[in-house]
Amino acid sequence: MATKKTETEKAAAKKAPVKKSAPAKKATAAKKTVAKKTVAKKPAAKKPVAKKTVKKATAAEAAAAKPVKKVSAARAKAKAERPVPAGIPGRKERRGVVVSDAMDKTIVIRIDAVRKHDRYGKVVRRSSKLHVHDEQNSAGVGDLVRVVETRPLSASKRWRLLEILEKAK
């Protein structure tokens, strides 16, 4: 004997989700991936970009392009008159004040560096000491001297006295 379903039961049966078996789920998922593959568009081919040629400036053009630093006539004249012993090419030169001349043929100089801190803007003063070879023992404490880098002369000496710029008072 068949039972008759009421209209409410029929409506509830229509709304209830139908459970699919595992093979049916896989088949549905496979159909979706196939559909996605066919729908996917091929990327448009990129057009080759023409390379820009950059003209390199000659040495004369580069020198002309640099801004010229203005120097007063009096300062330029004083600099030209001042005798400056030629340094040695490829060697470092430093200027410093003699802080000790107690050793034989050796002086100790202090090189002061004043810089503004990059982040905080505070003026930071630093100094370093160098042992310098002075062949004639001519420099005294307080003298302003110019030194040049040289081969190692002892365990601590790597610098040689080039000239005394200013004698101490």
Structure summarized in a few sentences:
This protein is an alpha+beta fold. The protein contains 4 helices and 5 strands. The chain is elongated.
- Supply Rg: 43 Å
Number of strands: 5
Strand content range: 25-35%
Q: What oligomeric state do the depicted chains represent?
A: single chain
Task: Let me know the largest β-sheet.
Answer: 5 strands, mixed, barrel
Global shape: elongated
Taking all residues together, what is the mean pLDDT? 77
Strand numbers in spatial order across the main sheet: 1-2-3-5-4
- CATH-derived topology of the domain at 88-166: OB fold (Dihydrolipoamide Acetyltransferase, E2P)
CATH architecture of the domain at 88-166: Beta Barrel
Structural class: alpha+beta
What string gives the helices and strands in order?
Answer: HHHHEEEEE
Could you describe the 3D structure shown?
- It is a single chain.
- This protein has helices at 7-15, 22-39, 59-65, 73-81; strands at 93-100, 106-116, 123-133, 144-149, 157-166.
- A 5-stranded mixed β-barrel has the order 1-2-3-5-4.
- It contains 4 helices and 5 strands, in the order ααααβββββ.
- The relative contact order is 0.11.
- The chain is elongated.
- It has a domain at 88-166: OB fold (Dihydrolipoamide Acetyltransferase, E2P), CATH 2.40.50.140.
- The longest helix is centred in the N-terminal third of the chain and has 18 residues, at 22-39.
